[in-house]
Each structure stands twice: as C-alpha cells, then as structure tokens.
Amino acid sequence: AQTVTQSQPEMSVQEAETVTLSCTYDTSESDYYLFWYKQPPSRQMILVIRQEAYKQQNATENRFSVNFQKAAKSFSLKISDSQLGDAAMYFCAYRRGSSGDKLTFGTGTRLAVRP
Amino acid sequence: SAVISQKPSRDICQRGTSLTIQCQVDSQVTMMFWYRQQPGQSLTLIATANQGSEATYESGFVIDKFPISRPNLTFSTLTVSNMSPEDSSIYLCSVEKWPDTQYFGPGTRLTVL
Hints:
The complex is a heterodimer of chains A (115) and B (113). With 115 residues, chain A is mainly β. Chain A contains no helices and 12 strands. Chain A has strands at 3-5, 10-14, 19-21, 24-26, 32-39, 46-52, 60-61, 64-69, 74-79, 88-96, 104-105, 109-114. Chain B has no helices and 11 strands. In chain B, the strands form 2 sheets. In chain B, strands 2, 4, 5, 6, 9, 10 and 11 form a 7-stranded mixed β-sheet that branches. A 4-stranded antiparallel β-sheet of chain B has the order 1-3-8-7, with no helix packed on it. The termini of chain B are far apart. The A-B interface holds A 33, 35, 37, 42-47, 50, 91, 95, 97, 99-100, 102-103, 105-108 and B 1, 30-31, 33, 37, 41-45, 48, 50, 58, 90, 92, 94, 96, 99-107, 109.
C-alpha cells in the first residue's frame, strides 16, 4: 500500500522569507502523480501544485515550487516570498497513474506566517 | 478546474438521525469522490461514485452507514446514517478533471451531539 509521510506537524516562517515543507512517500508503482494541497481555516482544499512522476523537471507555480527526488521518494514544497495568506494546513498527496484512483494524503503540516 | 458546491455547509445533528450531503459540480465528470476529515486529521476516502454504477467503498466504510447516490454526471449525495458523535467530521466531495487532478468542494462540517 502507498503511504505518504509529512514529518513536520508545524512550521513557521517570517513574511517575505522562504520555507520548505517536506514529504516522503512509499510506492512500488512507476506511474503516479504527487500533489500539494492547501487547506486554510475555511477548510476548502485548494490545489497548490502537481507533479507527474515521469517528468524530471520540477513543477513550479508562481511562488510555489517542488523538489522532486524520485529515487529518494521525496517531494518537498518550497514557498518563496511567504505571504500572510499562505498560512494554512498543507497536505501532500499521492495518486497512482490510473485515472479515477484515490488520493492518499499525508498527515499535514500547519504553516504559520509571522508578520 | 471545477466549481463545486456542497450543501449544507455545516449542520448540528442529534445522534441516531441521518444527514444527506449534496455535491454539485459545474460540468460533467465521470468520477466523484467522498472523503472524511476527522477533527485535526487528514483526509480519508469513503467511496468513489461513478454515474450509473454502485459506489465503491474503502475498507472500513459500508454502504448501510454511508449510502451514496449518483443520479447524473454533475451531482452526488452522501448520507451519514444513524449518526453518533464519532461521525463528527468534515465531509468533502471531489471530482477528477483533466489533467488527472482532483478538485474539492468547500466541505460540510458535521457535528453530532
């Protein structure tokens, strides 16, 4: 079974600084996707970034980027120029390559942004 | 992406009663998913709902407790039956859209007294 591990229950960053959230996963599959979702207090799950396992290039979305290390099964999220609105729970998630398969989530990292 | 709505957004219910949660998406989708998020926890899949077929339940979840309907390609309901305080959670529906990404509704916060 696939597992996703987020070893940092809480993180804190100064506004405008950079922070990295860690995620590791375990799978025997070769075709899969990885995601970072953000859940602010409103509880809406918001997609931050996605990565296809077959792509060597790390995904980026504006201030958000990932460091995808396939051999190490590591998928960290870097947030640059942190803003107060980035404060939220961040969940790492894994999905097998088959369409319609479920997401397996990590336990989440709560990010606080200090003004 | 997708625009997804859920009703109700929150509810407080008495134990032993049932609540039906609705999920509406703005475009036709094949797969809809129902997740549960217990207080302070991560998300766990309850079941996958395909239009025109029976929902597929994850281990630990049964149809008698969480019946699901999927009458068309834009709508689904999840019923939480014979509720107990342990059912107090956030219930979220999601849909899969190109490219192989799930998008979530705003969630329903359920409190069972």
